[in-house]
Amino acid sequence: MTTREIFDAMSYGPAPESAAEAMAWLDKHDRRFGPFINGAFAAPGETFATKNPATGEELAQVTQSTGGDIAAAVAAARRAQPKWAKLAGHERAKYLYALARLVQKHSRLFATLETLDNGKPIRESRDIDIPLVARHFYYHAGLAQLLEAEQPGMEPQGVCGQIIPWNFPLLMLAWKVAPALAAGNTVVLKPAEYTSLTALLFAEISREAGLPKGVLNIVTGDGRTGAALVGADVDKIAFTGSTEVGRRIRQDTAGRGIALTLELGGKSPYIVFDDADLDSAVEGLVDAIWFNQGQVCCAGSRLLVQEGVAPRFHEKLKRRMDGLRMGDPLDKCIDIGAVVDPVQLETITRMVDANTEGETYRAATPVPSGCFYPPTLITGLSPAARLMQEEIFGPVLVSTTFRTPAEAVELANNTRYGLAASVWTENVNLALDMAPKVKAGVVWVNGTNMFDAAAGFGGIRESGFGREGGWEGLLAYLKPAGKAKPAVAIAPVAEPANPEATGLDRTAKLYIGGKQARPDGGYSRAVWSARGRLLGHAGIGNRKDIRNAVEAAHKASGWAKAPAHNRAQVIYYIAENLSARAEEFAARLQAMTGKPGKAEVEAAIRRLFTYAAWADKFDGAAKSVPLRGVALAMNEPVGVIGALCPDEAPLLGLVSLMGPAIAMGNAVVLVPSQAYPLAATDLYQVLDTSDVPAGVVNIVTGDPAELAKTLAGHLDVDAVWSFAGADLAKLIETESAANLKRTWIGGARDWTGPSGEGREFLRQATEVKTVWVPYGE
């Protein structure tokens, strides 16, 4: 072909990246790898092949780590952790900086090895993944430097088990390892069995950086290795992967008192309005779905196009699909690489072939032999279609249309997931109206798949909980210094042998939807004073009462939309009305507990003032990201929170949980102290006279051990907090796996002191949504 013919055709010639350096590194290790434990590679054990998905060529043999390997890695991490945690933040920062520099030094080797092992185009590995890896270590070196001054009173979790997937092998390692080390933890990390090689290369450069032995350990293997790591003696598990596996991990860690963050699946909406720059939106889809073979959990794989422009947009999209190039991922001119493994290719093929709805369009681009799947667009699907609801994790885009912004929101939120979303419109008012309405942890405006170490990333609903990136990501690897002791249940005062009044008071009330309500069973129990005097009766709530309370809480959704200043006024008003009845409440507390109640009532009033003050001051942040634009970290309410209140401070404990929750815009279902429930029932009248909207606060008295199961398993409850005396952690965390709701298991604490209030409570009452807004040219 002559030069003139090339210019006329504008066709691309091959531009392969050499794999020689990566092959030489593999050969240096005889293409056999054992786990990396205590600063050295162990001898390989039973191994399996890791292959180049584009060619099927075997790259290396990687060890299937055993239970003994996991135990050795955890033991090494446990030995190293106290010394690592005691280092000054500046000293840990120097190690993280060294890792960042070494990633840059070896960037070509990392990029080539990543593409060989994963199948993604070299352009993505070289230009996106590896620079972001270095950015994460640089950024977290800065957080380590500032940690002691910016987060006083916090300490590392300890030994962290980390499990990462195959779609971003090295970047996911950086997302997890960098904050863990910055916070003073040590790590045992398991990469995906398909893509272990860059993690092992990173282990090697950690020695070059002088990282102390045992601080970083890498164990390789399949799901059996992951399960063994989850069951090991670790203090935290951080997992990125499928929702199904995440659910099992939540169940397997239940009741063990370890921290957990889950970044799970997604079926992210990609919303295109009729005023959008359609060509840019097409390029965004190409980047989101096809440049990475659709192997991104947050990819906008569910296309929603406004009806008036849908035909034109789909035609533009098809023309662009036909021009995409598939082939050797090491070729710098290739757009679409290989699917990671034949197993995943078979899954994609099976799901698409089973679909009987809509119209399927496959790009005209030639499909090479190997693990390749053609760019595919399926239009005309109904919102309930399987492909609109389930992750495909391949280069397949499914689409439907909408007419109005309200319908777009409804369709976008019609999913069990909530990881990310993209909104395309030239109307900034429309974009910023949509962003808070779409239920997702990340929203990109006129863009997609933008990531940075400074901007938190993570999901809601069945996309998991916890954030990676920014201060919010670092906080997931920290805990308040001085672990709280387990709460001790205080038994209700027993009924005297010869009580003055006996029998069940069937008129005892709960507080649901702003009204006092009869318990569904009609039953109550007598509440006796410390001296054996009958003080009153408390209703015994059941499953139906919890259901009614949750329904009432959802009807109060307007509370989240109310201005923070208005929420503050209502909380101030609660404090004012409680103050007016302070003597009455103090007398009731003293009668129940036998201790003076004045100090507790005064502390409760102060606590309400504190959260009224915080209501309009717990701000988000504008993140400094390398983009002409801004990434806004917005604090949003969690939703409906079920809270089991402590016995040791029956009024103050309840107020300390209710206050931050409603200040941040949540609705609550409170289960008050079982031993002293009248402290809560007396509060009904205060709430009634304080302009608290119906359903914002609901109170169901009864046995927390019975009510906790219903709250934790309820699919419309978004979080459960437990400070009840009974050991309910395992029950709550197991039941919460149904919809992967957030849980917060508290221990005994001094409710009158700093541990009874503050930012920890506010963080538990909010989700961070990151909204990316680019601007300018």
> Quaternary arrangement of the chains shown?
single chain
Question: Could you give the order of strands across the largest sheet?
Answer: 14-15-16-13-12-17-18-32-26-25
Might you state the CATH topology name of the largest domain?
Answer: Aldehyde Dehydrogenase, Chain A, domain 1
Total strands: 32
Can you walk through the features of this model?
There is one protein chain. The longest helix has 29 residues, at 122-150. The strands form eight sheets. A ten-stranded mixed sheet has the order 14-15-16-13-12-17-18-32-26-25, with helices on both faces. Helix content is 40%, strand content 18%. It is globular and about 100 Å long. Residues 497-506 have low confidence and may be disordered. It is built from 28 helices and 32 strands. The protein is α/β, with parallel strands linked by helices and 777 residues long. It folds into three domains: 20-264, Aldehyde Dehydrogenase, Chain A, domain 1 (3-Layer(aba) Sandwich); 269-458, Aldehyde Dehydrogenase, Chain A, domain 2; 510-774, 3-Layer(aba) Sandwich (Aldehyde Dehydrogenase, Chain A, domain 1), CATH 3.40.605.
